């Protein structure tokens, strides 16, 4: 029996099925390559879901973590605070957009960062309602499930959810929902459901992650900013998937020249170690009373040490420029595939930096989503040694999130596998 099969059997018996996984058991990984327990090598175009922007085990990140473990691993910031927390807060305050005083708090997961952004927004404004977007994903805790705009599998059977959360339509260019239509949906919420004066915050992903790599038009983000200004609503940019150089800027919202009041970040920040943050206007971040924010593990010294190294690597290796370069290289290849008659199943190719999506449809006229081809393609690519992820409310999109440190030969190797796998899957259908 293979080591993979043996682990799959134990996995099935010991772990709940609600945690869905690939059948690929990691043994070791380095930069953009991963080897499974049977010694098979993969190119990793998932990067632990946009976590490993600096690659698996970047030497600088590993050295920073090793150094931190030599002195202490946990004290709890509330009990015995440490410089690493303050130093990274200063660095993120300087890096986040906005020419005003900022403060940063650290927690552990993306969902926790979103929870805390909502907490401080409510405390500061004294208002309860929050507006999120259809197709958005913000996490799996109770509040973040409420904010998430996709029922199955994230919300199904888990309610009731916290009240006062409303969903507006997110613009989706490829589905004919432009900025004007999306904003009309928001206006309808103000008419039908809640008056703007009761809304504490609008939370938006500049590029929807789980929802399908839908890129918010820049004028949409600018209009949201204007609406927030008009009504005293706070704008929260959820940059948990889009941030930390992934889209070619430190934060994706910078492409639109929009300054949010609060930014949530996680994933790429810790370079493979759990760390998340909320950075925002100092007066908003200071609204909560002492003891209202934090947590036992909030701002782990290990995660903070890793994050300092991640930010150093982004600067030293110019990873924002690399994200643009990798995205363009992938984009060119997918555009070329999409032009071929044999690949008419490709309905759209889009990217912002190294957040690249290939959307699959049954045909171009109906644009009906084709989830089957995506699952077959991902399975076939895995057999051939390439790790891919799907996304989208209809699970018909392949998303590509290669580490930004990946050598270009491995980008090409991965793209060759993608093409070979798609050729086979399409061939089998005919
Ligand atoms: C935009 C966004 N927000 C929040 C989250 C939740 O993060 P976590 O899974 O670390 O709780 C994710 C995770 O995919 C995300 O992509």
Explained architecture:
The chain contains 13 helices and 15 strands. The protein is α/β, with parallel strands linked by helices. A hairpin with a 2-residue loop joins strand 11 (346-352) and strand 12 (355-360). The longest helix is centred in the last third of the chain and has 22 residues, at 408-429. The chain starts with a helix and ends with a helix. It binds pyridoxal-5'-phosphate. Pyridoxal-5'-phosphate binds at residues 49, 109-111, 114, 137-139, 205, 209-210, 238, 240-241, 266.
Low-confidence segments: none
Which structural class matches the secondary elements? alpha/beta
Associated small molecules: pyridoxal-5'-phosphate
Biggest pleated sheet: 7 strands, mixed
Task: Specify the helix fraction band.
Answer: 25-40%
Net shape: globular
Q: How many strands?
A: 15
Tally of DSSP helical segments: 13
Q: Name the strands of the widest sheet in spatial order.
A: 4-10-9-8-7-5-6
Radius of gyration (CA) equals 21 Å
């Amino acid at each position: 029996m293979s080591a993979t099969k043996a682990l799959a059997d134990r996995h099935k018996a010991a772990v709940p099925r609600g945690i869905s996984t690939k059948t690929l058991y990691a043994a070791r990984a380095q930069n953009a390559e991963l080897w499974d327990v049977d010694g098979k090598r993969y190119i990793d175009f998932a990067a632990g879901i946009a976590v490993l922007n600096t690659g698996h085990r970047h030497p600088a990140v590993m050295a920073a973590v090793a150094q931190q473990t030599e002195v202490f691993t946990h004290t709890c910031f509330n009990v015995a605070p440490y410089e690493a927390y303050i130093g990274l807060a200063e660095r993120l305050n300087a890096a986040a957009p906005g020419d005003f005083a900022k403060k940063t708090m650290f927690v552990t997961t993306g969902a926790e960062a979103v929870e805390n952004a909502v907490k401080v927004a409510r405390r500061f404004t004294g208002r309860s309602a929050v507006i999120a977007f259809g197709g958005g994903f913000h996490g799996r805790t109770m509040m973040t499930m409420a904010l998430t705009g996709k029922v199955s599998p994230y919300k199904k059977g888990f309610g009731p959810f916290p009240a006062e959360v409303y969903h507006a339509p997110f613009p989706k260019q490829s589905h004919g929902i432009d900025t004007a239509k999306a904003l009309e949906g928001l206006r309808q919420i103000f008419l039908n459901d809640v008056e703007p004066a009761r809304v504490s915050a609008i939370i938006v992903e500049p590029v929807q992650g789980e929802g399908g790599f839908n890129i918010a038009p820049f004028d949409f983000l600018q209009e949201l900013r204007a609406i927030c200004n008009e009504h005293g609503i706070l704008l929260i940019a959820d940059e948990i998937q889009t941030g930390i150089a992934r889209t070619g800027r430190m934060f994706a919202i910078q492409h639109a020249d929009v300054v949010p009041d609060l930014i949530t970040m996680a994933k790429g920040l810790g370079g493979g170690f759990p760390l998340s943050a909320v950075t925002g206007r100092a007066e908003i971040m200071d609204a909560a009373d002492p003891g209202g924010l934090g947590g036992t593990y909030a701002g782990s010294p290990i995660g903070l040490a890793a994050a300092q190294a991640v930010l150093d690597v982004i600067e030293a290796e110019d990873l924002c420029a690399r994200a643009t370069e990798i995205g363009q290289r992938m984009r060119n290849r997918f555009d070329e595939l999409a032009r071929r008659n044999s690949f008419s199943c490709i309905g759209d190719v889009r990217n912002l930096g190294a957040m690249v999506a290939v959307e699959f449809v049954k045909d171009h006229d109906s644009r009906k989503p084709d989830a089957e081809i995506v699952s077959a393609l991902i399975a076939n690519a895995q057999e051939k040694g390439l790790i891919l992820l799907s996304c989208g409310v209809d699970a018909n999109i392949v998303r590509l999130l290669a580490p930004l440190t990946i050598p270009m030969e491995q980008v090409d190797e991965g793209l060759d596998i993608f093409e070979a796998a798609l050729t086979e899957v399409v061939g089998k259908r005919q």
